[in-house]
Amino acid sequence: MTKRLVILVSGRGSNLQSILAACRSGQIPDTQVVAVISNRPAAGALELAVLAGIPALTVDHRDYGARVDFDAALQRRIDDYAPDVVALAGFMRQLTPAFVQHYEGRMLNVHPSLLPAFPGLHTHARALEQGVLWHGASVHFVTSALDAGPAIIQAAVAVLPEDDEQSLAARVLDAEHRIYPQALAWLLAGRVAYAAGRAQWRDPPETAMREAIAPSLEM
Ligand code: GRF
């Protein structure tokens, strides 16, 4: 039975692109992206969806006064597509507890840091400012606390002496594009589930759950 994936976006859609490629290649097996929904009508990700022949919708948060009203409208549109899993891919809205609860255990997010370090915004600038030697990306179950759900996979990205925010962000984004499809493949295959606030592995991957991606240090 083909699994149904709805992807929520706000920006250019590079994570959407890597997920679509993984569905096409079979890295995410037996899965179809059935809709792409954005809160921003101008999101480049919507064009990517249209080009891929996938229903591309906007639920514009500016049309709603209260956050709960936007979330309720978004939930109705998502559920029109009866998803098995919802993937937040560059989706820049904080979601209300009722919405999160409705999708508990079947909604993931990708965050550009090694959570619990650097939840929230501007993670690369903060990592550089704090002088950390390792940064990275996390894919986690979405819970009502921002960027705090249990991780399914993480990628470590070394901070290089010559890094600035742009160079570091680029390598973290590459890591996101590798780990998000892997996390979705594991969740959709039922190898991991959300239970009692944790990621419970029914069939843990042979490799460590954390994927350390050492940079190619060409000197
Ligand atoms: C990514 O860095 C992701 O971590 C953050 O949004 C950024 C843009 O994502 N949540 P995309 O290129 O729109 O997928």
UniProtKB/TrEMBL annotation:
Keywords attached to this entry: Purine biosynthesis, Transferase
Binding, N(1)-(5-phospho-beta-D-ribosyl)glycinamide: G13, S14, N15
Site, as annotated: Raises pKa of active site His: D147
Positions annotated to bind (6R)-10-formyltetrahydrofolate: R67, N109
Pathway: Purine metabolism; IMP biosynthesis via de novo pathway; N(2)-formyl-N(1)-(5-phospho-D-ribosyl)glycinamide from N(1)-(5-phospho-D-ribosyl)glycinamide (10-formyl THF route): step 1/1
Gene3D superfamilies per record: Formyl transferase, N-terminal domain (3.40.50.170)
Residue stretches making up the Formyl transferase N-terminal domain: 3-184
Active site, UniProt feature: H111
NCBIfam families for the chain: PurN (TIGR00639)
Name listed for the protein in its UniProt record: Phosphoribosylglycinamide formyltransferase
Source organism: Acidithiobacillus ferrooxidans (Thiobacillus ferrooxidans)
This protein's encoding gene: purN
